[in-house]
């Protein structure tokens, strides 16, 4: 397709959706929204095999992991939204204040209009359709731009949407950076972007041109602390799952571990066994996904080589064959190594011993605020101290990853790891304009209107005493 044709297609898709906005505001009621969500759930259930096949083609992910981490979360999001939508849509009464005496305030969640959803490649199905659930629940139209790096899933997302929704409600525009750039030039009402912090900045700058609101679901390095009183076996179970499912290509995967020196050797031995049990001694089990492409496999191998050259020791794994990288543990990591400051986003896990928790907290605080912070420890006061003295989008205590599946928790980062929230009611609010409506019945505020006579000034002095 030529550039002009692509731009024309994009503009037509946008204008078609924008034209329907006023109409939809009046007619896209609870029943219509629920129907859309049901249609989405039906098409997903009917196409489970095709979804599994597309993701396997894109990066060798096995069926069980695809069902667990791509399909189920979207179906759960749909059924949660369907169950609670009536309550979410209801205008909320605002508790009156003294100054608003004689009025009645309501918050009406209203559709924002036409929303752009830009998805990444690492959970190419979940992160395209998950935001769509909140977007439709909130009564919007959507254009989805899936990632070009997962081409089979991108094509499938496009065909499922085309067979499920009229184009004025949901349209998929496939393509790479040029397509994203052309889309970002249009005056969307909201942009929901999932991807890297670097591209998040480009998206936010583009949104500024039309003052579109943005949600940025970004990434970064999620640290994990294992305290001296952790249940080491359980910690190894959760960390092996969190780090090596999707071959480590997960925004909330533990990026690196700080392990208390008193238990470090015991923990590493348990973790090695746990990884061998999950992925076989050589780490070649079909349950381990591949890295998405050779560019990213080279990037991860480059981080590992740089670390080894600068003195890191590989204590497990290290093998690479094309886009296969074995689950790898490395130790003796120093700040001079690239792996110490770049998001790893692959199956390589640095392990750093510590004696003093204060030093670990200072190290975390010296870096951009992470998306997730994980703590394994049975000592509650130590856990509370870490939470109180750091900042992150989420905290997982004695678990990894599960916070993504909790429909009543906000999912989002802070500063470098993101802006705004997804999931459940938080996702619905993200895609809604919370419109304040205040109706006057017998407000006495007119007593303060000019001319500011002595009587007004007397009432003002009285009001200051009561309100101030
Ligand atoms: P990416 O930022 O490279 O790409 C994301 C999307 O942006 C893709 O659709 C891509 O086509 C588009 N894009 C790329 N460059 C662009 C540009 N210059 N202008 C406009 N659009 C552009 O991210 P990725 O490599 O697909 O995903 C990995 C990153 O996403 C990691 O940093 C990861 O931590 C993060 N991530 C975050 C979450 C979350 O929920 N917070 C989830 C998954 C991934």
Describe the 3D structure:
The strands form 4 sheets. A 7-stranded mixed β-sheet has the order 10-13-14-9-8-15-16, sandwiched between helices. The protein is built from 16 helices and 18 strands. Helix 3 (30-46) runs antiparallel to helix 5 (63-89), helix 4 crosses helix 5 (63-89) and helix 5 (63-89) packs parallel to helix 6 (126-137). The radius of gyration is 25 Å and the shape is globular. The N and C termini lie far apart (65 Å). The protein is of the alpha/beta class and 468 residues long. It has 2 domains: 3-218 and 418-435, Aldehyde Dehydrogenase, Chain A, domain 1 (3-Layer(aba) Sandwich), CATH 3.40.605; 223-409, Aldehyde Dehydrogenase, Chain A, domain 2 (3-Layer(aba) Sandwich). It has helices at 3-19, 21-27, 30-46, 48-59, 63-89, 126-137, 151-164, 177-184, 197-210, 232-244, 264-279, 294-309, 357-365, 380-389, 424-430, 454-467; strands spanning 92-94, 103-111, 114-118, 141-145, 170-172, 190-194, 213-217, 222-226, 254-260, 313-316, 320-321, 324-325, 328-331, 348-354, 372-376, 394-397, 418-419, 432-440. Strand 4 (141-145), helix 7 and strand 5 form a beta-alpha-beta unit. The structure holds nicotinamide-adenine-dinucleotide. Nicotinamide-adenine-dinucleotide binds at residues 118-122, 127, 145, 147-148, 176-177, 180-181, 194-196, 199, 202, 217-219, 251, 343, 345, 371, 413, 418.
């Amino acid at each position: 397709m030529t550039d002009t044709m692509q731009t024309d297609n994009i503009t037509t898709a946008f204008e078609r959706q924008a034209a329907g906005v006023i109409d939809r505001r009046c007619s896209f009621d609870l029943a219509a929204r629920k129907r859309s969500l049901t249609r989405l759930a039906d098409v997903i259930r009917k196409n489970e095999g095709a979804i599994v096949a597309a993701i396997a083609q894109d990066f060798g992910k096995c069926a069980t992991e695809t069902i667990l981490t791509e399909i189920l979360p979207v179906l759960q999001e749909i059924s949660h939204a369907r169950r609670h939508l009536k309550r979410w849509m209801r205008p909320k009464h605002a508790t009156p204040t003294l100054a608003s005496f004689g009025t009645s305030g309501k918050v009406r969640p209203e559709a924002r209009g036409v929303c752009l959803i830009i998805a990444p490649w690492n959970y190419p199905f979940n992160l395209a359709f998950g935001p769509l659930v909140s977007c439709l629940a909130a009564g919007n139209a959507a254009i989805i731009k899936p990632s070009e790096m997962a081409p089979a899933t991108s094509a499938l997302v496009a065909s499922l949407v085309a067979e499920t929704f009229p184009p004025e409600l949901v349209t998929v525009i496939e393509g790479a950076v040029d397509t994203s750039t052309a889309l970002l030039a249009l005056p969307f009402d909201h942009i929901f972007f999932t991807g890297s912090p670097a591209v998040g900045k480009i998206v936010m700058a583009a949104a500024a041109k039309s003052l579109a609101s943005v949600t940025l679901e970004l990434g970064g390095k999620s640290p994990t602390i294992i305290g001296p009183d952790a249940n080491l076996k359980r910690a190894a179970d959760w960390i092996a799952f969190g780090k090596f499912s999707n071959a480590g290509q997960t925004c909330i995967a533990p990026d690196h571990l700080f392990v208390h020196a008193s238990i470090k050797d015991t923990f590493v031995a348990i973790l090695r066994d746990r990884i061998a049990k999950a992925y076989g001694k050589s780490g070649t089990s079909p349950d381990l996904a591949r890295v998405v492409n050779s560019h990213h496999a080279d990037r991860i191998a480059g981080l590992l080589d740089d670390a080894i050259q600068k003195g890191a020791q590989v204590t497990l794994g290290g093998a690479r064959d094309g886009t296969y990288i074995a689950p790898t543990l490395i130790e003796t990591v120093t700040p001079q190594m690239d792996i110490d400051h770049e998001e790893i986003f692959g199956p390589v896990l640095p392990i750093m011993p510590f004696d003093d928790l204060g030093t670990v907290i200072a190290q975390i605080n010296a870096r951009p605020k992470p998306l997730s912070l994980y703590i394994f420890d049975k000592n509650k006061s130590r856990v509370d101290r870490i939470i109180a003295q750091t900042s992150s989008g989420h905290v997982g205590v004695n678990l990894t990853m599960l916070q993504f599946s909790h429909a009543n928790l906000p999912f989002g980062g802070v500063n470098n790891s993101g802006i705004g929230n997804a999931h459940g009611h938080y996702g619905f609010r993200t895609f809604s304009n919370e419109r304040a409506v205040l109706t006057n019945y017998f407000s006495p505020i007119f007593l303060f209107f000019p001319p500011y006579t002595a009587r007004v000034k007397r009432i003002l002095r009285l009001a200051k005493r009561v309100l101030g």
